[in-house]
Design brief:
126 residues; mainly beta; 10 strands
Length: 126
């Protein structure tokens, strides 16, 4: 019977790259900041690289510009942006809009974020 090795999967959270450690069964163990910390967990750990998320930033104000940016290129100030107001969740509860950083961390390819204050749209590419 073949035994699986522990894994360190590169993940993108909070504007940085991290490694999610998984045991031989695939259960989550911890999140660490460096590969060195991952090898301290297990010497025979398998590293799984993931591509850095990329985004298309498109002007919506008539200026006609468009740019591609990597996940880590967004500043902390940009990540903190939040539309004012509230939304309603599936249960009918009123909730505050998520911040741009929260959206970056949870988005999937094709998702869009509208910044109505600065009049641009961000679309996740990968």
């Amino acid at each position: 019977m073949k035994t699986r090795k522990p894994r360190a999967i590169k993940a993108w959270q909070g504007g940085e790259a991290w490694f999610e450690l998984r045991d031989e069964c695939g259960a989550f163990v911890a999140t660490v900041a460096t590969a060195q910390e991952a090898t301290e967990y297990a010497e025979d750990i398998v590293f799984i690289e993931t591509d850095e998320p990329r985004f298309l930033v498109r002007d919506e104000g008539g200026r006609g510009w468009c740019a591609e940016r990597a996940y880590t290129e967004f500043t902390q100030e940009e990540r903190e942006y939040r539309e004012e107001g509230t939304d309603t969740d599936y249960a009918g509860n009123e909730i505050e809009f998520e911040s741009f950083g929260e959206w970056l961390d949870s988005s999937d390819a094709g998702d869009e974020f509208q910044n109505s204050d600065d009049n641009y749209t961000v679309i996740r590419i990968n």
